[in-house]
Design goal:
It is a single chain. The protein has 378 residues and is an alpha+beta fold. The chain has nine helices and 15 strands. Helix 4 packs antiparallel against helix 5. The longest helix has 26 residues, at 352-377. The relative contact order is 0.07.
């Protein structure tokens, strides 16, 4: 089951090379059933029904139980075959709105077909219908992007960067490998540092909206419509960070060179490839712009680069979450290699109290929604 990001024909073919399981492309939103439409790309043990070049995007189908995906033209009429328009999800199983007005209520509209006790949700996605009646997703009507399956407004990222007094201009976009980046132009004479800007972004934005890459620029190009143009083909290793802050080496003033092929050297190289700079031993993985998806990539890279080290081959993705800095992770690996079983139970980062508080907030929201629902029906 694929969802949350475009599924390409090439990826389907790669999947078929690994498994004979059925492959389904699913589509939905938080405001709709999680699977509001689906398309069976390959039957179990069957051929792949996804013709075309590897970069071709697979359709998402026309609906699922209780829901229907439709495409409307700009005038609100049903779009014709091949005509681009906004994708709407029709059905009775939609959210009623946003808690405390935290989202655009105008996205919830009456069912375009006039079906009683049903409604529709305007997704903001651009799409088209093929001759078989299947919906193809072709982008966004706004500047919202998907980062690891979560929505991020590029304007929000830019606005957070511009609130730093040393930032003159800012533009956010996804790189070709799917990472969130922000290009910034510093004010003349300022001493803007990447660390200071990242602290500001972390304070103003949800973790998933904090860019993985902060790319300095002398200026930002604009097109004929005076819109900023950025380069999504920025390589995995961008140009040098903005005025890198002085490293705090007081805990390790004479750091020796890393032995080639050691876990420390491989980890440093992989983190440099992901972030474009050298990472200090005590920097938190999430504070430097990594997220769940990049930690998965880091985990796979470590296992591939060090296949003969038992501490690495037994490393789990959870270990990266619970030891989220180079020093903590290397200490954990060292303890494991020496047989220190207590290392398996040591945890750093998120505390039990933080988890309990987050759980209590979710329970409070559920109680409120339940209470409002009862009041509505009374």
């Amino acid at each position: 089951m694929s969802g949350g990001a475009p599924l390409t024909t090439g990826l389907v073919r790669r999947l078929r090379g690994l498994t004979q399981a059925a492959v389904v492309n699913a589509y939905g939103a938080t405001e709709t059933p999680q699977i509001a439409a689906h398309h069976l790309v390959a039957h179990r043990y069957g051929p792949v029904a996804a013709p075309g070049p590897d970069e071709t995007t697979v359709p998402v189908g026309a609906g699922a139980a209780g829901s229907r995906a439709v495409v409307l033209a700009p005038d609100g009429s049903p779009a014709g075959i091949g005509q681009r328009g906004e994708i709407l999800i029709r059905g009775a199983l939609l959210a009623r709105g946003y808690l405390d007005g935290s989202g655009p209520q105008q996205r919830f509209v009456a069912d375009p077909g006039g079906v009683p006790h049903a409604g529709a949700y305007r997704t903001g996605d651009l799409g088209r219908l093929d001759p078989a009646g299947r919906v193809h997703v072709e982008g966004r009507m706004d500047r919202q992007v998907s980062v690891n399956g979560y929505r991020v407004g590029l304007e929000e990222v830019e606005g957070a960067a511009l609130r730093h007094p040393d930032v003159l201009r800012a533009a956010a976009a996804l790189t070709e490998d799917g990472r969130l980046a922000v290009w910034v132009v510093a004010r003349p004479g300022s001493t803007l540092t990447e660390a200071a800007l990242r602290r500001q972004l972390s304070a103003l934005l949800p973790p998933l909206a904090v860019p993985s890459l902060i790319v300095p620029a002398d200026g930002l190009r604009v097109d004929a419509n005076h819109k900023v143009v950025v380069d999504p083909a920025t390589p995995a290793t961008p140009i040098a960070p903005i005025a890198p802050a002085a490293k705090n080496d007081t805990a390790d003033p004479a750091r020796p060179p890393l032995a080639a092929g050691s876990a420390a050297a491989v980890l440093a190289a992989q983190l440099r490839a992901l972030t474009g700079r050298d990472i200090d031993p005590d920097e938190n993985f999430f504070d430097i712009g990594l997220n769940s998806m990049t930690l998965l990539r880091l985990h796979e890279s470590l296992r591939h680069a060090l296949p003969d080290q038992p501490a690495i081959t037994g490393l789990t993705v959870t270990d990266l979450f619970t030891h989220p800095s180079p020093r903590a992770l290397l200490r954990f690996l060292s303890d494991r290699s020496t047989g220190d079983e207590a290392a398996r139970h040591r945890r750093t980062g998120v505390s039990i109290a933080d988890l309990n508080n987050a759980g209590e907030r979710r329970r409070a929201i559920r109680r409120r929604i339940h209470h409002e629902g009862r009041s509505t029906h009374e």
